[in-house]
Amino acid sequence: MSSLLDETHDPALTSWVETANDPATDFPIQNLPFGRFRRAGEAQWRIGVAIGDQILDLQRAKLIETDDMNALMRAGTARRKRLRLALSQGLRAGSPRQSTLQSSLVPQTAVEMGLPCRIGDYTDFYTSIHHATTVGKLFRPDNPLLPNYKWVPIGYHGRASSIVASGQSIRWPIGQFKAPDDEVPRFGATQRLDYELELGAFIATANPQGEPVPIGAAEDHLFGLALFNDWTARDIQAWEYQPLGPFLSKNFASTLSPWIVTMEALAPFRVPFERPASDPEPLPYLESATNRASGAIDIALEVWLSTAAMRDAGRPAQKLMQSNFRDSYWTLAQLVAHHTVNGCNLQPSDLLGSGTQSGPDAGQGGSLLELAMGGKQPLRLAGGDTRGFLQDGDTVIPRGYCNRPGFRRVGFGDCTGTVVAAREFQHEAA
Amino acid sequence: MSSLLDETHDPALTSWVETANDPATDFPIQNLPFGRFRRAGEAQWRIGVAIGDQILDLQRAKLIETDDMNALMRAGTARRKRLRLALSQGLRAGSPRQSTLQSSLVPQTAVEMGLPCRIGDYTDFYTSIHHATTVGKLFRPDNPLLPNYKWVPIGYHGRASSIVASGQSIRWPIGQFKAPDDEVPRFGATQRLDYELELGAFIATANPQGEPVPIGAAEDHLFGLALFNDWTARDIQAWEYQPLGPFLSKNFASTLSPWIVTMEALAPFRVPFERPASDPEPLPYLESATNRASGAIDIALEVWLSTAAMRDAGRPAQKLMQSNFRDSYWTLAQLVAHHTVNGCNLQPSDLLGSGTQSGPDAGQGGSLLELAMGGKQPLRLAGGDTRGFLQDGDTVIPRGYCNRPGFRRVGFGDCTGTVVAAREFQHEAA
Questions:
Q1: Where does B285-427 have alpha helices with state H?
Q2: Element (H, E) at B262
Q3: Sign of torsion over alpha carbons B404, B405, B410, B413
Q4: For residue range A222-251, what is the model confidence (pLDDT) as tens digits?
Q5: Is A241 helix (H, G, I), strand (E, B) or coil?
Q6: Mind telling me how many Å the CA of B389 is from chain A's nearest CA?
Q7: What's the pLDDT tens digit per position in B118-149?
Q8: Selection from A355, A387, A391, A393 nearest residue A368 by Cα
Q9: Dist CA A254 CA A158 (whole Å)
Q10: What is the ipTM of this complex?
Q11: Which residues of B are part of the catalytic machinery?
Q12: Cα(B341)–Cα(A172) distance, integer angstroms
């Protein structure tokens, strides 16, 4: 891992942007995540880097040539590392470039943040064995963890067009669902709306169709990570998902955080990939010495909830749970190696979801389904309210950050979405 | 249906492009499908319309302003209909524009055909109840047709990046699979490579996120249809597909035909949407008077096979089966209404696969899995060879056409793909 560290990770570095030196900021000079922003009245998105409570406008600062994030992704790891070093040096306290760069700063409060890029194909994985086991028990009590789980990094394709940026509201979905006792399915607003706490990994460089990415090269194909909320209608899911998987239960919307924290920024937080000794070894195409030594990443993940009632009462958002990405059963390198082993071509700006990140303990479920046991044990909120599933006006706030003694905290920023009531469905005259 | 017909469908129309008047052509003046082509040495794709054995270059003919098919799709139904009328009038025998348009013709044999557009999100449905039942028997003998099938137009998201144009070869995929008697999964080239005969429908106009498309408006969101081969590795599929559906078993490649036959060209072939009286009525959001009267389309579909041995012996391709899209359990309008009922936003150039189109009889399976009963009853080919699943060098050729007394035949053109041997997988040094 030490080979992944360079001067940009030095915890002693401070920035001339004073707010970047606040120990609580998500965006110290050791982070430098990429995102897209625009000022009021601008139509075009611009590429920026978060530093404290400011954004450095990269094109205005003459650090990139176009404002096409997809092109920056495609440029690959070496180019991104050079840019990171230039940013670290330019934003460092005492930099001779301070006066030049200062005019390319814009306060984060002054802009709208968009999706970090135009998303290509979106794949969602299922890497938390704790999530798979708990959810499996609810959907298939007799058969919670399927026999393929410990061999295959299970994944499926998702919907890219309906992924929205943090802050956008989520229209309550309607559809078909059927309780076990119903004779025929019902049609209407979902009664079991849920969130899923995930990370999303962006692909940087492509692999040609027909050419697998070996696990040792897999991380070179990654750009970085963002927070991801895979909103899910559980009743629609239960009725539709066999035999081809989830569809309308998820494709109405997913929320992505605006900042992509690069693989470089995450380097200090790499940890060994560990499995219970009783579990099978991964097949050789999913295994390497590097993956064993440092394939996992220590990222604390949380979900916070703010209800309309809490806001009316002036209460702050409430933390519902915490888990850690290091507990994932598969690493990012394994996901890339598996996804391409059949020759499938990944492309710059493709998004790989991690799947819901639940921890080993009962209170660490990454969805309400898990925390409230399918609605049977509603969560008690501060103020006395309860939640089995989401309600109108609920704001869901996934959070993520890395802490390690001897290094600066690196965080992911905002990923919020508020659910709003369904419209009445207008049927056709038959 | 008569309201859908206009002068462009008149079977008496002939073209000054003589080959368009051949009764056997797929591309009479009543068809006018859109595709993208380029001449040798050109980097950019150009939009063309097939007429007999020629292509009319639309930008050179000053009939469109840019060569962006996605923009033409986005422009919507009314614009496409005006363009169709202008094309029909200009290409008609006796047209005063003949001498102008003549210089914008290029022979189909002189160009490369690409994918008809940059594909957005790709969804695959499962609309043949005959396919679902036969395949269900093989995967779940005790439970072939799941309880949701007659209520939910089952669909799932697929991979857009690996969809290739007709004529491109398909690299034999490798992956994990596990026979029931295997203690641990194997890794290697699939032993059960298959095709799936499908139609692909392209979306023209978008619906905003959160706003369902009512079934009565659904066809206005469609551009037209092409042939589609959803290559599938059955052993990988059987091992990976639970609980989230097919993934690596399908996303290594799919083949799309180059010409999009528009909804207008298909108007003469509309037929009633019919179901057995004992089956449930679709829920109201999936039902309309128009859908009942003419929601289905009479399109004959076939799969032809040419093996390396056949080609060596100078034998022609062999027809394996025929089915008809009118036997689909769900109509295109129902697919659009269902896909958007939860607010999911469809976009111009999104692709909706029909799912494998199998007919009611045993010889009408749209995949080898069905025709050869999971490999147990291999097909006997002319020349004595047999096929349980595909072999290296096999060329699979889906075909499609519409015939109706009193109208000109409308066809879909080529959709071919040849499978080539797997590369040896290069493992990492661990």
A1: 289-294, 308-312, 332-340, 368-371
A2: strand B261-262
A3: positive
A4: 999 999 999 999 999 999 999 999 999 999
A5: coil
A6: 18
A7: 999 999 999 999 999 999 998 788 888 999 99
A8: A387
A9: 10
A10: 0.96
A11: 131
A12: 11
